[in-house]
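Now for our specimen.

. . .
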Amino acid sequence: MMAAYRAQPAFCRGVHTLAVSADLFKINRKRLCEILKNKVPKGALVLLQGGESETRHSSDHEPIFRQESYFHWTFGVEEPDFFGAIDVDTQKSILFPPKLPDSYAVWMGKLLELEDFRVRYGVDEAQWACDIAQVLKTKAPSVILTLRGMDTDSSNYTREAAFDGISEFKLDNIALHPQIMECRVFKTDEELEVLRYSNQLSSEAHKEVMRCIRPGMYEYQLESIFRHYCYYNGGARNLAYTCICGTGDNGSVLHYGHAGAPNSKQVNDGDMCLFDMGSEYCCYASDITCSFPANGKFSQKQRNIYEAVLASSQAVMAAMKPGVSWVDMHLLADRTHLEELKKIGLVQGDVDEMMKVRLGAVFMPHGLGHFMGIDTHDVGGYPEGTERIDKPGLRSLRTVRTLDHRMVITVEPGIYFIDVLIDAALNNPEQARFLVREQIDQYRGFGGVRIEDDVTVTEDGMECLTCVPRTVEEIEAIMKEGHNRPHVPLPQETEKLA
């Protein structure tokens, strides 16, 4: 909050990157006030608390700060330890930055003044956080609306704003959450522009990974290429989530890449790769999965599964438009998978009967997709009045809503060969009668294929924000292009580091 002073109210990381105007957040505040004004008393004030600075465990190491998502949506503030308030009636906004000791300038750079913060973030007023109680008393709000509500993905609650003296005000921690959550579900033109940028950047990074991969590399080296591309070329310091770089059987581990399996396997010739990686820019996410053969050429088995998933992705995108049930889209993906698996001889029998016993969940145990925005798994999946469907696969859906204009959602069908699910199905008479065991056994250890694109629902259909090679021919062509580059020796091909 010091040396990063900027003259114009915009987030930008250079002329080669997108400039995100502070007007994006002003529009968000206006939308919120308009939806609240007929639901709360006159004189109401919204109060949000941003994320706090922190150190790691017992050390003084300070991780890179990433703003709390609701606060970012409302104010676009990059730094920690802020409060922000909005007068619902007038739509005027106030930021409350922390007042730091002058000695901080030695370590952190020039300290900004209140006017700097007001200009930087395009708000109407800025006051020090230590004065918040006194400032709010002069505003004399009829009620202060604080944010408290549960995220239906994580089951975690938002952090309610609190400061010394807040008990002297009338508070309401119920009215705000459902309204601001619903605002976040529907993206403005300005938000869509940032999401397009994040997607384009991540798409190009995925293409670079396809060009660079060689058998003998390690999964983490491919993750490194993706990270470097996004930061170096697009100014994306953070990724939207932990990279999944599964090769071979690791592609069947849905959340591979975690601390216990840190993308550490060596890539083998003949492996199928499943790389799920996305950058975020100005806290707006992308979430893209590409699946392809490590050696650049699909085997028949790899092509069989890949084209089955591609058929599912294409069927869903062709059917998407306002008024369509997301549950129906998941079932369409399941049905398409089963029809394609039947063509290649892995399942047999009547597909309608397979659907009744939820056979599709054996091969795709996760939901078809999720809302996306400032959070990768964005909010609003289960508003009041909706509930999960307690059936295999369907219970993993992150939303059961009907699609509408300006929603942004991922389309990510997949087919995986997960031993524990296959074995359970083979021991279940209702499902086993459809499975061709000797054919399925040939795919054990295959891993999986997922194709994930980020899509916004338009007035009469959808727009795919992701732009990567998707057909077998397109993938093989870009990988061949990479193979024609001069080979740069990898560390494992040279002397070990001292």
